[in-house]
């Protein structure tokens, strides 16, 4: 489990490793930071969602969310629309949030991408495995993630340019969306790239998604050459594509 402590002289949150009972005792942020800077209900979000899933309820949940206000603002600066703050059974020394995200990137780079088969909106089954012969870009997103929405036009534009040479797999975390929402979202934003549905959160678990949006860049040998956490600018994604094709 990962908990963030803001009672620090550093310019960014510190990650501390404690049980949830102790986590509730962390200092709360100033009252002027408690409202407007973040939200928890995903259908009411402008920026970021903290995922607390089964860990908290009632007053304890409210207190922890308020404690996370600075984390939300910091993550927003990184272009992250959702951040998974939990990592079970971890007793590591405290690290910063930026260091934690960097560790996630280093952990995956150079490894083989997990195989999967997922459905599309029309019911077609699409597979990615060792027989895949083209470079692949896998993006994990949701309809309620504001930072995901920012990069969607970039992915659409480059899909139109490079779709014949690179497999674009835009994986919607359907366990947190539904098909009607996704279909409406694609039409409203004029998005035509292939969308796969992670309806049972299998991909989220297999790829250990730490935040939305997250993008994996995979070469023709199924090796992960880059993991990008947060919204991508066109120049960033184009550079990754050029690296795949050269």
From TrEMBL:
The superkingdom listed in its UniProt entry is: Bacteria
Bilayer-crossing residues are 68-86
Keyword Transmembrane helix attached? yes
Q: Which UniProt keywords apply?
A: Disulfide bond, Membrane, Transmembrane, Transmembrane helix
Task: Say if the entry is tagged with keyword Transmembrane.
Answer: yes
Taking every annotated instance into account, which residue ranges of this chain make up the domain Thioredoxin?
A: 107-246
Q: Which GO terms describe its molecular function?
A: antioxidant activity; oxidoreductase activity
Q: Which first-to-last residue range defines the signal peptide?
A: none
PANTHER family in the record, alphabetically? THIOL:DISULFIDE INTERCHANGE PROTEIN DSBE, THIOREDOXIN-LIKE PROTEIN HI_1115
Protein name as annotated: TlpA family protein disulfide reductase
Question: What organism does the UniProt record list as the source?
Answer: Polycladospora coralii
Taxonomic lineage of the native organism: Bacteria, Bacillati, Bacillota, Bacilli, Bacillales
């Amino acid at each position: 489990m990962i908990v963030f402590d803001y009672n620090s002289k550093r310019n960014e949150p510190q990650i501390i490793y404690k049980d949830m009972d102790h986590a509730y005792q962390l200092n709360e942020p100033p009252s002027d930071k408690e409202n407007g800077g973040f939200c928890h209900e995903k259908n009411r979000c402008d920026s970021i969602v903290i995922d607390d899933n089964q860990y908290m309820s009632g007053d304890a949940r409210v207190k922890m969310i308020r404690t996370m206000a600075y984390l939300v603002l910091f993550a927003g600066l990184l272009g992250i629309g959702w951040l998974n703050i939990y990592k079970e059974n971890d007793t590591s020394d405290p690290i910063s949030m930026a260091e934690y995200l960097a560790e996630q990137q280093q952990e995956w780079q150079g490894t083989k991408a997990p195989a999967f088969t997922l459905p599309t909106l029309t019911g077609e089954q699409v597979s990615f495995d060792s027989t895949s012969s083209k470079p692949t870009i896998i993006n994990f997103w949701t309809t309620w993630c504001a930072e995901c929405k920012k990069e969607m036009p970039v992915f659409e534009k480059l899909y139109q340019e490079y779709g014949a040479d690179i497999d674009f797999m835009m994986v919607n975390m359907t366990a947190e969306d539904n098909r009607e929402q996704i279909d409406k979202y694609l039409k409203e934003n004029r998005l035509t790239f292939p969308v796969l549905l992670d309806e049972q959160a299998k991909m989220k678990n297999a790829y250990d998604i730490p935040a939305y949006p997250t993008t994996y860049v995979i070469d023709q040998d199924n090796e992960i050459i880059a993991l990008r956490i947060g919204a991508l600018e066109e120049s960033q994604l184009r550079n990754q594509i050029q690296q795949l094709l050269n």
